[in-house]
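Bump. Still looking for tRNA nucleotidyltransferase/poly(A) polymerase structure tokens.
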Amino acid sequence: MIVILTHRQMDFDALASMVAAQKIFPDSFMVVDGKSNPYVQDFIALAKDRLPFLRPKDVDWTRVEKIVLVDTHNLQRAAGIKEEVFDQIPLIVYDHHPYYGSLTDQMHIESIGSCTTLLIEEIRKMAIQLSPFEATLLALGIYDDTGSLLFESTTVRDVKAVAYLLEQGANLGVVAEYLRKPLIEDQKELLQQLLDNGKTKDFQGQPVYISWAEGDEYVGGLALLAHRVGEMEGAETLFLVVQMENRVYLVGRSRGRGLEVNRIVQTFGGAGHARAASATVKNASVDEILKQLDGELERQAHRINRVKDIMSYPVKTVSPEMKLSEVEQILLKYGHTGVPVAQENQLVGIISRRDVDKAIKHGLAHAPVKGFMTKDVVVVDAGSSWEDVQRTMVQHDIGRVPVLEDGKLAGIVSRSDILRIVHGSAVPTEMSLTRHRSLAMREDILHLFEELPERIRSLLGSAQQVADELGYSVFVVGGFVRDILLKVPTQDLDFVIEGDGHAFARALADQLQDVQVVFHDQFGTARLDFSDGSHLDVASSRREDYSSPGALPQVEESRLRDDMFRRDFTINAMAIAINSIHYGELVDYYGGLRDLKQGEIRFLHNLSFIEDPTRILRALRFAGRYGFRLAKETREGLYTALDAGVLQKLSIERFTEEFMHMLSELKFGVMGESMLLMGVLRKWFGAELPWDFTHPKLNQEISPERKLLISLRRMDKSQFEKVQEKLRLPREIKGIAYKYFDVMTGLISLGIAGEPSEASSYSKEKISLRSLDQYLEGIPAILMEVFLWDERFCDSVETYVEAVNGIHQTTDGMTLRQWGVKEGPDIGRILKAVRLAWLEGKIHTGEEEKEFVLSFLKGGLSNRPKGETTCST
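Sorry for the wait, here they are.
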């Protein structure tokens, strides 16, 4: 026997979830107890024949084999079940309320708008048909719990579920009828009390509407009343405390920028979402609950949405004496429509781009700012609320407002900052940042952290401790974040500090000990060098500007958002918070996580390749490494940059550095083909060179030197000269490459380097081992490997290697001197003759070798012409 349960005071989402669960478990029974929402009661009264319910007392719990629990994950909230059977019966859960424990295979809990949606998705997978009545009830459940799809908790999945139900015959007219029913008299009286007793209180800058009411009889529909009160009062956060019979009911609602009400309600034993939650407290008074509620709100509310939390800083300012022509360049450089004028950090005016343009058109580019700036500046205080700034912007029709703190210029707030709050695209947090937060993502990241090597986990722990002690916001950024999200091995640690990066580096080094700190004042960075040769980088959040394509960046202090924006691609522009309070939270302003999931390399702005052409190579490197593709606009930007000739403005050293990075990658062949296809190599080397990136070894674990030689194998020495002119190759690599071309030229001269079909026509006998030996004897092992991998040479070289491995020559110079050969070139000639005899199979044993040498000596070596190096046959 299978029973389906839900929470007490059943609403439409709970009812619909039970009906949907019974479609998935057709032999099950729905069990309900207690009072439901009054509208739910009306619906059940009319549809009683279609909704066969059992009461808990009618169930033989000893025969129950499985419990299906819907719209709650707390079995204790289920109606009518005895606690002693909790652990005895297998449980399947479908719920959409926040859950912070560990999930099992039987727990289907996801944060979406309606629990009904979860079950509809199961119904669709199982291809179960719904009647129009069932489809209408399920739609009613979704609409009721999502505020007709208008609540912030509504997801795309809820909307798709409704669309499916409409296809199944759901009647939205019936849905609207039940959702719009007028209040009954008892509800109207209760609503009037709530409106009369309500007032708004301020908790750490957060306005919260709190009201209370009392009644002798239980009145259902308190959730509906909370919705009505919220609409009438326009409250972002509200709590209703209502005493009915011997219980006190606490209901919390939140929207937009309101508090997470479930965290407050949990302290009263309740549960729910961040935007809707409730609790029921027995044997308590309204006054007691109100007092406790005030205390929890004061404790949990955080002062956010102040101007200081959303403003941009530091502020770019100009001095009153600066020339208008210089101001024009600053406005163009930073893309501002205006800039504050300050003297000794005191705001004295503001100058707009429009005024600058007008003055310059009149030939006043040389004039100082002070003659054209607006002195009557509209400002706001750092402690003001964002609503105050919004009103100021609307009233004065301005888009950027300077922020003062203690009378000094502290920052600037723009329309964009306000819009981010109004539309909820980002949540303001400490240190004036807007961060994307996801508890689910945070849990995944913390799990990934646990799988990191002990050394990395220890470093992160030390960084966290130092960050907390200094009061800095610290983030691990860039490649570490990218790779940990991709679940690939990573050792690269880069920290960005909102604060003094050098102070953080010193403090971290003191804690770690046995660490050398190197400071780079020009870039505001520091490097910690460890005794094992590894290192980590520390930087204050900064902004970079490029004076010309390919130039080194000019660095300025900035905030994390700008620091991320200076990076090359979205997948490298993510950060993870290290501080204790936000440990493991992902900061992703530019969609890096999205692009990781979609497998795309995307630059952050259209001038990215123009500013730094090395990003062209990095884009292809990352694409090849991870098997990603270039986003459409990024690919177009790459071609635009190549056509503009920016690649030629790079120094040879910087191009070489990026090229060598590619050679060190596993998928160098893939990267090389991309460079060839997109014209990168043609642009850089100024010629169509016969690069070869098709060999399978180029995408395997071999050394960079071997990969380079393989990619050059279709070239001749003169073509390689063009390559090395545009690459600063290390001396040893250049030397081995020249040797490679010398040997390859010799082998080709023997006639064994045609196409594979041609090469195979040459029998091993046609190319003598003696001929091969003059080019292959004593060459480095790396060259021998490369020739063995080359289908043009592999047969002949393999035969040669086998022959060389069969040489067991024991005769050496000392032996010959003992036999009377004088010191000089004759010794070398004899040893060469012995080696060739072994190579050609004329000698097989040490005894034969001795006989060969003695016979050779008897033949009269001293009378041989100078230069004759082989013995007669």
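The chain has 37 helices and 30 strands.

Edit: fixed formatting.
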